[in-house]
Every structure is written in structure tokens, then in C-alpha cells.
Amino acid sequence: TNGYALMADNSKLFLSETLEDEKDPLKNEYKHILHTVQNRGAEIIKKMQVSSALSAAEAIGQHLRDWIGDNSNHSESAFSMGILSNGNPYGVPDDLVFSFPVVRMKSTTNDEENDMIMIDSSLTINESVRRLINKTVEELLDEKSQISHLL
Predict the structure, then answer these.
(1) Can you tell me the distance from the alpha carbon of 70 to that of 62, in angstroms, rounded to the nearest whole number?
(2) Is the Cβ–Cβ distance between 86 and 94 less than 8 Å?
(3) Strand 79-84 versus strand 97-109 pairing type
(4) pLDDT digit string (tens) for 3-50?
(5) Is 107 helix (H, G, I), strand (E, B) or coil?
(6) Is the dihedral of CA 24, 26, 32, 36 positive or negative?
(7) Which residues pair with 119 in a beta bridge?
(8) DSSP 8-state class, residue 93
(9) Distance CA 11, CA 132 (A)
(10) Residues 25, 147: contact at Cβ < 8 Å?
């Protein structure tokens, strides 16, 4: 499987395949979507003349709903979550908080059922996606080095 975006009509948009397909007429549109997502904070500030804090607050709320299991949209499917990278299967260096595809799993310990969030390691990472991951890793490592004196 490849990573995908779930569209409003519940169809799956496989970005990794699309970015590799030179003949795809929408390839530039997908690249534009990726660029927009990567620069959304600056765009919000530019257009609304206010901080992107509200957008960040909404994302935090969604993340917390996912984390505590209060989101029926993700009951059986993979979703994205920023978690510590230690021991991940995608080659991201340890000690970074990184957004990974995760799944919610049921676990039973001492006759008590619990939810666990685990990285979904079933995704195939092609060269285009690998480049995007590597770029993000470089940015995170740079940010980490800039604040290392505070840690």
C-alpha cells in the first residue's frame, strides 16, 4: 500500500503514485497541494493578518481526539500522528517528533482491554516520498540544533 489522502467524497488520493507519474495531468496540482500544506501557516498569517494559532489549536484538538480514541473517523484505518521517532520503520532518526501513519490497536492485559497507537509499517515509500521525508528530517534537525542550548 501507499500513503493516501482521504478526499471529501471518501475516495483515496495516492499522492506518492501521482508524484511519480510524469504523464499524470494533475501532477502539478498535487505538487501545489503539497506546497500549500507545507506553507499553510505563513499563508494564514498573510491572508488573515492574524497568527495561525487558531489553525494550530484546531490541529491540536484533532490530534488529542485521535490520541484518546474519541474520533470515530479513525477506528480501523491509519491516520497521521506526531510521535517520538525512536525505533520507527521509516528511517527517521531517533529523538524527533515526527508525523507517522499510525493505527489504533486493541490490546488486552490482565483481562483489561486498552487501545494502543502503533506506527503502521505497511506503507511503501517510493523515491518521491523518501525525498519529502528527508527534507522534513533536515528541517527538524536544523530546528533542533538551533534550540539545543535550551535542552
Answers:
(1) 9
(2) yes
(3) antiparallel
(4) 555 565 666 666 565 556 666 666 666 677 777 767 766 776 777 666
(5) strand
(6) negative
(7) 102
(8) P
(9) 23
(10) no
**Are 85 and 95 a contacting pair, CB within 8 Å?**
yes
Distance (Å, whole) CA 37 – CA 44: 11
Residue environment code for 12-37, b if the CB has 16+ CB neighbours within 10 A, otherwise e: eeebbbbbeeeeeeeeeebeeeeeee
Which 3 state secondary structure label does DSSP give 104? strand
What residue type is assigned to position 4 of the chain? Y
Given the C-alpha cell 505563513, which residue does it identify? Answer: 42
pLDDT tens readout for residues 94-141: 999 999 999 887 777 777 777 788 899 988 888 888 998 999 999 999
Lookup result for grid cell 507517522: 100
Burial 48-66 (b: 16+ CB within 10 A, else e): eeeebeebeeeeeeebeeb
Nearest to 136 by CA among 108, 106, 97: 97
Confidence of residue 1 (pLDDT cuts 50, 70, 90): very low
